[in-house]
Amino acid sequence: MNQEELQIISKALVSSGKGILAADESSNTCKKRFDSVGIECTEETRRKYRGLLFTSPGASEFMSGVIFYDETFWQSSDEDQTFPKYLEINNIIPGIKVDKGLINLPGFPGEKLTQGLDGLPEQMIKYADAGAKFAKWRSVIAIGENIPTEECIKSNAFVLARYARICQDTGIVPIVEPEVLFDGTHTIEQSEQTLAKTYEILFKTMQEMRVFMPGAILKTSMVLPGKDSGAEINHDDTAKRTVRVLHEHVPQDLGGVVFLSGGQKSNDAFINLNRIAKLGPHPWGVTFSYSRALQDPVLKLWAKDRENKKAVQDLFLNQLRLAGAASLGELDESELHDNTEATKSQDL
Ligand code: 13P
After folding, report:
1. Is 290 in the pocket of ligand 1 (CB under 6 A)?
2. What is the 260 CA–ligand 1 centroid distance (Å)?
3. Mutate which of 98, 138, 177, 260 to test ligand 1's pocket (most atoms within 8 Å of Cβ)?
4. What is the rounded CA–CA span in Å between residue 115 and residue 105?
5. Any catalytic annotation for residue 79?
């Protein structure tokens, strides 16, 4: 394992004022998103849309990396350059989602395990040879009646830790993502307790499986009341609790912390990140790794006007600029106008 190289990549991914675009929605999830705005979802429309995002002029000022889905990783821009190559040349780090999605955890109704470890070392070598510098694996922890169970958290932590060590042996920085779902009727206290328990088990397991902490990144949910709980999001409370649970349970030498948006409205995801950053300094670089919060309004605009490349890219750049400012705690919140609707997190 080249520890120095892993640390350089981790640091670059969370470098000041920049964050990660998650564009790794599976084709099924992409279809749901495209259906919702009336766009036909084909290999070519997915390539076109994502290509617009990646090639937005000026994006590298705010975008440290992009997480690809396997299909996109092997596709090319209109200029016939593979997307990972295009990013590399433009100083943006290419990453790849490597898990194979969720299955039911047998014996534990309502709980999920993420699959994809079989054949992963060989697959990882192919991605590394083609330019991937980091990877993502998403596990899901749901909050509900009598869940999550410790067995579910442990099972997912074990798989995340095994994946992380496989990545590092190939020179790839693992993003470990134990997503505590926003969906549900739980309280903000339950969200905080679940994140605390999840981090505690995850990092203990990662240590045991000999993961090199400075060469790994945590992708995490924020502490929020369940989306269907009826409680409004209180940005300061979310920021305070999120910072508390991170500072108390995440190793100080970890390579970085990035947030998912989880189906929050874009503006909530930006404001919460802004308030979290303001509560710094933090022991690690802290930034965004958003899919929906960055993309929702952009996809809507593209659906309305497929020919107006400039307007779509300008809007995407503005979303990145807002998120980049939020990651520094420098977002002027009065700039935020209308909000996009919250969306469901299941089956990403
Ligand atoms: P959202 O920001 O839409 O939650 O997606 C981030 C992600 O990559 C989830 O795995």
Report:
1. yes
2. 5
3. 260
4. 10
5. no
Fold for 3-347, please state it.
TIM Barrel (3.20.20)
66 Cβ below 6 A of ligand 1 = no
CA–CA separation, 343 vs 296, rounded Å? Answer: 9
Exposed (0-12), middle (13-18) or buried (19+): which is 305, by Cβ within 10 Å? exposed
| φ/ψ (deg, to 5) at 138 | -110, 125
Q: DSSP string spanning 261-277?
A: -TT--HHHHHHHHHHHH
Assess whether the C-beta atom of 99 lies below 6 angstroms from ligand 1: no
- Which pTM does this prediction carry? 0.96
Contact between residue 239 and residue 279 where contact means Cβ atoms under 8 Å apart: yes
- Dist CA 272 CA 235 (whole Å): 5
For residue 25, report the distance from its CA to the centre of ligand 1, in Å: 8
Query: Is 219 annotated in the active site?
Result: yes
List the pLDDT tens digit at each of the 348 positions of the chain.
899 999 999 999 999 999 999 999 999 999 999 999 999 999 999 999 999 999 999 999 999 999 999 999 999 999 999 999 999 999 999 999 999 999 999 999 999 999 999 999 999 999 999 999 999 999 999 999 999 999 999 999 999 999 999 999 999 999 999 999 999 999 999 999 999 999 999 999 999 999 999 999 999 999 999 999 999 999 999 999 999 999 999 999 999 999 999 999 999 999 999 999 999 999 999 999 999 999 999 999 999 999 999 999 999 999 999 999 999 999 999 999 755 455 555 445
Q: Is the CB of 292 under 6 A from ligand 1?
A: yes
- Distance (angstroms) between ligand 1 centre and the Cα of 17 equals 19
Q: Given 25, 111, 177, 179, which residue is catalytic?
A: 177
Residue 222 CA from chain centroid, whole number: 12
